[in-house]
């Protein structure tokens, strides 16, 4: 009984004015889930509004003959820059970023996406050749998340530099969610000491679709917890097979759109995983 009362008290305090704590069923399909369950007997959920469904590209896609002619007339570098501009603007549309990013940010992202594509494919010539052969649709499928990451403030690889850093928004979300996990565990009648720094980042890595603690956990822990800015300044090396995780795009957008509510939802999701692990221990 005390266990249920503690969880119910937590739910009531978390709801505040937004009224977002309610009984609900978990989402069955993408986008990534925004809810988490801490106690099975009384399913209490801290929820965010559903993520907007990703939109398809509505920009012009020239046929192969037109692509061949354009590349022949303009050269590889100009062609590759055109590809970068297209993918960047598709990222804005796909993830509903209108109003979240400015025209100046979009223009600045064009060059960063161009340099990423050169790093990824080996220069402007492979970018141009791939576009002539497969068109914009290939780049829309393969690299829209990287373009979105640039627009959201991430540093991604470029020629001569394969480092990646978190966006300031996501760094702040991770930093602020950490102590909240302990509060949720206390409400579930568990010790907040269960959530060590290493375990927190192991769970975060899975939640955000990031690689495991080979780099993420250890690197960010080494960066220290003096401020969220420390996490944002941390630089991580990624291999040539770099593929920016879609769940991280969604969580970054949630942190921008919902602020403290996103922090609470993320903390609840991590805490619920810990509770489930404790429940199934022999």
Question: What do these coordinates show?
Answer:
This protein has two domains: 2-53 and 164-279, no CATH class; 64-161, no CATH class. Helix 3 (76-94) runs parallel beside helix 5. The chain has 282 residues and is mostly helical. The chain has helices at 2-15, 64-74, 76-94, 103-121, 124-151, 168-187, 197-207, 216-223, 228-233, 246-258, 260-279; strands at 21-22, 45-46, 163-165, 235-237.
Summarize the structure.
This protein is mainly alpha-helical and 282 residues long. It contains eleven helices and four strands; from the N terminus they run αββααααβααααβαα.
Biggest sheet, open or closed, and with what strands and sense?
A: 2 strands, antiparallel
**Shape category:** elongated
**Secondary-structure element string:** HEEHHHHEHHHHEHH
Structural class: mainly alpha
The fraction of residues in strands falls at: under 5%
What Rg do the Cα atoms give? 21 Å
Number of spatially distinct domains: 2
CA distance, first residue to last residue: 22 Å
User: pLDDT below 50 for ≥5 consecutive residues: which ranges?
Assistant: 1-44
Strand order of the largest sheet: 1-2
The count of DSSP E runs of length 2 or more, i.e. the number of strands, is 4
Rounded mean pLDDT score: 79
Key descriptive features of the protein:
4% strand, 4 strands, disordered N terminus, mainly alpha, 282 residues, single chain, two-stranded antiparallel sheet
